[in-house]
Design a protein that fits this description.
By secondary structure, the protein is of the alpha+beta class.
Length: 170
């Protein structure tokens, strides 16, 4: 799947916050990146809310030997840091579209979902409902061709009955 270009990314950010100018979104994104860089540079770690933790791993200078055309050549790999990213609980769950982490399962057991958990569940159920209604519209159009019509209320009633049968509705 194709990745967003920087311009498309800033446009998405702008739309998400109801903005009209890509330049403002670009400034905000650049500011967030600069904060991450500064925190990692000075503290070797940066926690970004709803995203995760960026940690730096230190690597000492070392020699690396490579065989090039039958001749061993020695290269010096300079001292450097590599970045390790650990996603936070909500990010992992949001990417999956449902709660998959151990922390989430514990919150469910204790019946203490977060606001984010509830929003994710509602978004997931809305997407399922939208998908189901699109499917039913296709069926409705096919039936209309045969002059048979099922009212939308009956479709919604059937969907709710299926959800109830699957234990999704209380």
């Amino acid at each position: 799947m194709r990745q967003l270009t920087p311009k498309e990314f800033y446009l998405q950010v702008s739309k998400w916050v109801n903005g009209k100018r890509i330049g403002v979104a670009q400034k905000w994104c650049n500011a967030v990146v600069e904060i991450i860089i500064q925190e990692c540079f000075f503290k070797h770690s940066c926690r970004v809310p709803l995203l995760g933790i960026f940690d730096l791993e230190h690597h000492e200078e070392k020699e690396q030997i490579q065989n090039i055309n039958g001749v061993d050549q020695t290269f010096i790999v300079p001292e450097h840091y590599s970045v390790k990213f650990t996603p936070c609980d909500s990010f992992a769950n949001d990417v999956n579209g449902k709660g998959v982490t151990k922390l989430y399962r514990n919150r469910v057991k204790q019946e203490k979902p977060t606001k984010r958990d509830i929003e994710r569940q509602l978004r997931f159920e809305k997407e399922k409902m939208d998908e189901y209604l699109k499917q039913q519209e296709k069926i409705q159009k096919a039936l209309e061709k045969e002059n048979k019509k099922i009212p939308k209320e009956e479709i919604l009633k059937e969907f709710k009955e299926r959800m109830k049968a699957n234990g999704k509705e209380k």
